[in-house]
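Before relying on records like the one below, remember that each one covers exactly one chain. Contacts with other chains, cofactors or solvent are not represented anywhere in the record.
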Amino acid sequence: MNLPDSVKTYFDADQSSDAEALVGAFSETAVVHDEGATYQGLEPIRRWWLEAKQKYGHTAQPISAANDGEGISVLATVSGNFPNSPAQLRFRFVVDQGKIAQLEIGA
């Protein structure tokens, strides 16, 4: 699967629980949309990911990816401590100048 480096870093860091590497994949003004909430900037994104990791103990394994011209949509199997685990979720990334500028996670 051919993913931009920042998107690959996101999934690799998620697998290894490396918050610093994960946050380093985002631009300073990045926005994440997940579970009905929005997080903007590196510190809010760090807190979002650490809190989700603590709550769910999740890992995300990409299974397919497609470029729609405006972003990259990655279908991933997400496993963790939540009902109906594992689940397939879609991660939609917008990458700008090599960094993740936007991430939206949903079904």
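Strands lie at 26-34, 37-40, 59-67, 72-79, 87-96, 99-106.
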